[in-house]
Structure formats: structure tokens, C-alpha cells
Specification:
With 260 residues, the protein is of the alpha/beta class. 48% of the residues lie in helices and 14% in strands.
């Protein structure tokens, strides 16, 4: 299926590994030139080379922390008029809300709510003027089914979801769509960290917790990041302009509901 994206330009945040990397690969496979961001310059360079060699598209790595003004400006300088923006940032730490300070809450809001809003603000008027734009925010399955130890993430990402719900309806008439992708348990470093935390507080082994979590999923497995990347590319397709303000949950059916 041709998604009609060849020659488009994208910024993919936090794309040196994990779900961001998977999204960058999927878009590159569709002929999209990508600017990828990440904090680890060496890892980012390797990822850029791998994508470039595999797809032949232009891949520009921009090292920096996307949750800072400097990091955002560097990414935007490399691609000032993107057709596609994939917002992504590492989640805040796990823990008990009784132990979190105001500074930790502000850091979570900065990373997982205010940073994507700042990037949307920077690119959306250009998308409107060009009559094409696709914005995908990587949030979390916790938006629909909160995870107790991820309270910082639950709160910050829910705030972004509420903001996007209103803005998406304002810009859809210009062929600019904003949607959210909500990952469940995918094979990433973040999942490893979460499972490790659960193991620690429950007094069980990591292997036991991982096996239990796998068995509890209707698919009997964790997700492959490539599956997530393909879903992102689909939401960015030229033919996906009627998908507006949605929260697409990719969790193997773990969230049990008749209607999402």
C-alpha cells in the first residue's frame, strides 16, 4: 500500500532507539526524509546510518534533549517546515506519588505535555498554509488504563491528550491531523525498566514478573516496535486525513472494553 508520503519531510523525536526509531524507519520506508533527534549522539548517528543505508532517504541526526528549548530549536533548524511531526520523549520515573517533589512534577509536564505542545505550535501554521500536516504524539496506554507506578506519566500525558482533543478539531479542515498513539507493552528499554521496578517492589524476580506480564496479554507476547512504527506511518498517510483527534491503543487487547 502506497501511503502517498514519498518526498515528504518529518521530524521524529527521541528516535535513536525504541518506538521513536521504529517510527522513523517506517516513515523512511515510505520515502520520507527524516530528521531524527536523540540525546546520545553516537547512538543517534548509528541509527541514522542504518536507516539511510536501508532506505536511501535523507536522514539528518540532530543530537540534543528535545525537552529543552535548545533541543527543540536544533531539530526545527534542521527541518523548519516539516510535513510530519512525531512527538516522543522518554517517560518520567516510576514510583510512589508521595515521594515526588514539585520539581519532578514540572519535569514530567515539561517532557510529556509542554514539549509536544511547543513543537506543535512551532510547525502547525506552516502545515496549515501548505494544506498538509500529520502530527502523531506517542503517549501511553496508561492514558486509558492508568498504571499505578507511572503516576507522573499518567498525569502529564492525560494533559496532552486533553489539549490535542480540542486543537485537532480546529485544524482538521486544513488537512492537518493530530492523533495520539498509545503503546502498551512493547519490547523497549522503558518496558524493561518498568518490569524491573515492579519486581523490586514486589520482591519477585525480573523473569517471573516478565513471564506473568506476557501471559496476561491476550496475544501472549509483547509488541514488536516495528508494528508500532507501521501504525504511525498509517496515521501519517495522505489518505488518513479523516482520522482526527483519535487515541489509537496498541496494547495487544490488554485494555478490556467494548468500546475504547
Amino acid at each position: 500500500m502506497d501511503l502517498g508520503l514519498r518526498g515528504k519531510r518529518a521530524i521524529v523525536c527521541a528516535a535513536s532507539k525504541g518506538l521513536g526509531r521504529a517510527c522513523a524507519i517506517a516513515l523512511a520506508n515510505e520515502g520520507v526524509d527524516v530528521v531524527i533527534n536523540g540525546r546520545n549522539a553516537d547512538l543517534l548517528e548509528r541509527t541514522a546510518a542504518e536507516i539511510r543505508d536501508a532506505t536511501g532517504v535523507q536522514v539528518v541526526p540532530v543530537a540534543g534533549d528535545i525537552t529543552t528549548e535548545e533541543g527543540r530549536q536544533a531539530a526545527l533548524a534542521a527541518c523548519p517546515a516539516p510535513d510530519i511531526l512525531v512527538n516522543n520523549a522518554g517517560g518520567p520515573p516510576t514510583g510512589d506519588f508521595r515521594n515526588w517533589s514539585r520539581d519532578e512534577w514540572i519535569a514530567a509536564l515539561d517532557a510529556n505535555m509542554l514539549t509536544p505542545i511547543a513543537l506543535i505550535r512551532a510547525v502547525i501554521d506552516g502545515m496549515i498554509s501548505r494544506r498538509f500536516g500529520r502530527i502523531v504524539n506517542i503517549t501511553s496506554g496508561a492514558v486509558k488504563s492508568p498504571i499505578p507506578e507511572l503516576g507522573l506519566s499518567n498525569g502529564a500525558r492525560a494533559g496532552l491528550t486533553g489539549f490535542v482533543a480540542g486543537l485537532a478539531r480546529q485544524v482538521a479542515r486544513h488537512n492537518v491531523t493530530i492523533n495520539n498513539l498509545l503503546p502498551g507493552p512493547f519490547l523497549t528499554d522503558r518496558l524493561d525498566h518498568t518490569l524491573g521496578h515492579v519486581a523490586q517492589v514486589s520482591g519477585r524476580s525480573y523473569e517471573e514478573v516478565k513471564a506473568e506480564r506476557t501471559r496476561s496479554n491476550p496475544t501472549g507476547r509483547f509488541g514488536d516496535p516495528a508494528e508500532f512504527g507501521n501504525a504511525c506511518a498509517f496515521l501519517c498517510a495522505a489518505s488518513s486525513g479523516f482520522i482526527v483527534g483519535q487515541n489509537l491503543l496498541l496494547d495487544g487487547g490488554a485494555f478490556n472494553a467494548t468500546m475504547g
